[in-house]
Amino acid sequence: PYDIEFAGDVQAVKRPFAKESELYGQIQLVRGTVETLNRRFELERGTLVFNGPALAARVDLAAVLDVRLTGTLAGQSSAQITLAVNG
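RE: above sequence
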């Protein structure tokens, strides 16, 4: 499941005789979490940029999970896993 909040300004434009609207603007991550692999990742950054068709939006998201290590790995007691989506 996803629990994500974005904020920003997006304008929808539908040209005469066009089948679909186009979106223009940008929204930024306010807060959020993503559950995957039976773990909850905290979103640390997120931007959606619209400049035409909705499916052509540019996406930049990153979520992190801090994991405590049960053994020691080069003296480390924790590790950070980052999930990133760009495109």
